[in-house]
Design a protein that fits this description.
Radius of gyration: 19 Å
Number of strands: 14
Order of helices and strands: EEEEHEHHEHEHHEEHHEEEEHHE
Distance between the termini: 22 Å
């Protein structure tokens, strides 16, 4: 598949990749993570700078890494956001980097429909009590959940952000990427193997139920139907997603009225390029969107999208995280 971690299978599917978060390393800063409050698998943080303008709900990518040790650096650019990071169930928020093997409990529970329900339960009380406008941020596999989550929240988000994901259905992306790599038969054989397996059988490092749900999971449909603006940020040198998946021709003219694409030249799946941290730009664009002004009209949205070279919002002028190539 494209952005999912695979083990080598006896049926011949090769390891294609591991998650988005593998591009990051924890900072040496002793204060890293001290602003974050754990609530089960969810982390929360108040805005770093007044005024508090929006509620950012972040769904990380695949795997069982906990982001608390790097959260302060990773999300430093969301200066005016009350921020929630919703890990999948059975993830230890302190566990960074990702362990070689996720726990059996994680593997057994892991599936997109369960992640959606868990995220909805986790954030619903905050959404209910907060008056802040909402931005949903999906990172890689997390972006497959945010369109459905946006449809089910008590309040519509004011912005949906897809990082390192084009917003298409996972099977469509899998077909395209596997064909691109000459592995289409292996990919489809894996899906067929999952259909015939018991739900808890492990195939490619994920349960058979994970693949069974994924095969019918829809991302593009709720994204197309949604009325909220969409921001996509990705690396143009990302080897894990097919280039054709970013075409605007896949979306209706009505949907594209509130649609902003911000590709980062030469960047990889972690939106990192030599000498450039694309996440700094992503956070700057979000901050720009939530500055005072007209956010509802098409014209107001277009003006915000046109700001392509926003300055880093980091409080110290540096990139908010350290990366390894």
């Amino acid at each position: 598949m494209v952005w999912r971690c695979f083990q080598r299978l006896r049926v011949g599917v090769v390891a294609l990749l591991c998650g988005f978060s593998g591009a990051l390393v924890a900072a040496d800063d002793e204060d890293s993570g001290t602003r974050w409050r754990p609530d089960g698998p969810m982390l929360s943080r108040s805005a770093l700078a007044p005024p508090e303008r929006y509620l950012a709900i972040v769904l990380p990518g695949s795997g069982c890494a906990g982001l608390r040790p790097i959260a302060s650096d990773l999300f430093a650019g969301l200066l005016h956001a009350r921020t929630l990071v919703v890990h999948p169930r059975h993830v230890d928020p302190e566990r960074w980097p990702e362990p070689e093997h996720c726990t059996p409990e994680f593997v057994s529970h892991d599936a997109l429909d369960r992640r959606l329900e868990d995220a909805l339960r986790a954030v619903a009380p905050v959404v209910d009590e907060s008056r802040l406008p909402i931005v949903l941020i999906g990172i890689s596999e997390g972006a497959e959940i945010v369109p459905a989550l946006a449809m089910r929240l008590a309040r519509e988000p004011l912005l949906v952000v897809l990082l390192a994901h084009p917003g298409l259905d996972p099977v469509t992306l899998g077909d395209w990427q596997a064909a691109r790599q000459g592995q289409l038969q292996d990919w489809r054989r894996q899906l067929e193997l999952a259909r015939q397996a018991s739900a808890q059988d492990v195939i490619g490092g994920r349960s058979a139920r994970y693949w069974q749900v994924l095969e019918h999971w829809r991302v593009a449909e709720p994204l197309e139907k949604g009325r909220w603006p969409v921001l996509r940020v990705w690396g143009q040198a990302d080897p894990r997603l097919p280039p054709e998946s970013w075409s605007k021709d896949l979306w209706s003219a009505q949907r594209l009225l509130r649609w902003c694409d911000q590709p980062v030249a030469e960047a990889d799946h972690g939106v990192q390029a030599p000498g450039l941290n694309g996440l700094v730009r992503a956070w700057a664009w979000i901050e720009n969107f939530f500055r005072p002004g007209d956010q509802d009209s098409v014209e107001g949205w277009s003006q915000r999208c046109s700001v392509r070279e926003a300055a880093s919002p980091s409080s110290n002028g540096e990139a908010p995280l350290r990366v390894m190539r």
